[in-house]
Amino acid sequence: MFTRHPGNPIVRAGGFPWRQAVTFNPGVLFDEGRYWLYERAAAGLAPFRCVIGLLAGTDGVAFRHVVPDPVFTPEMAGSPYGSVQDPRVVKLDGRYCMTFAFRPFAWSCFPTGVGVPRSEVAAYPGFDPATARNQTRSGLAVSPDRIHWSFRSWITPETIDDRDVILFPERIGGRYAVLRRPVSFVGTDTSHGTGSPGIMISFSDDLERWSEPELVAAPRFGWESNRIGGSTPPILTRRGWLVLYHGVETQDPAVNGVCYRMGGMLLDAGDPRRVVARCPDFLMEPEEPYEKQGVLIPNVIFPTGAVVRDGTLSVYYGACDTAICLATAPLDAVVDRIAAHPAGS
Questions:
Q1: Element (DSSP H or E) covering residue 64
Q2: 131-159 pLDDT tens trace
Q3: Which end of the chain is more exposed for a tag (fewer CB within 10 A), N or C?
């Protein structure tokens, strides 16, 4: 169903010092005749300190940097030793909004080539080594022009590890909505009886205070055995909100070997807490060499940006936490495939 671009990976690391090691998991907008791509990039792996860079192009394939420096950094989120990760970007209420994951002290990553890298925390000045002080928290940044960004608010608390936080591109019933993926931490139970982490939703009237997360979908199929999480910003279609998500399967516990695939579900247009349909099979899995081997994690397709133009759905994804790739499919075909599996069937 999805066709990979023959030029994949379309964006690779290099060029500027702050993106020498990797570039991946981009947020993408199409606005005013241009594609705007917000890359997660790192200068090195030890420490694995990530920043957000900005590229743009007119055809959705060839991109060039708009400015030579990152447009959002850990310092802007409150820590010079931290890492900002996995931007998802939407245009909402006439301004540009970026959700991001933030760790106050960046890990150092040591890839194994066969599974999730081994990670350690470097010795930072004044660093409290307690795990509770270095969990992933998700926040919101805003921009009037797509280039100049400022921190707006925290969406998730410090007491849980919460990422894959993604804004819906419009209000629903007058309220803002976000998908999120909290995990149990510091004596809290955020699993809602699901076992492995799943996709949840929260609402807000002001982008400052958010409701307690409510379960939307839990891991259900074998290829999601480890966890699931939201991927790209939801897209409103004739059958409801199209949510592309990632499912993680543990394939070799001895080496922490996993596989990241892309799935799809439809949520009710007026009440996105309700799943209308969910495809039991993945929509994409690692097949190409650049999806099966890379700098950090093998066997990873991690979509974070999506654009619909002229009936074509373009999905931008990180491959092996190494580079950025593109795959396309007819939007109607994707929606119809998912809709063929109504919830409860």
A1: strand 64-65
A2: 677 889 999 999 999 999 999 999 999 88
A3: C
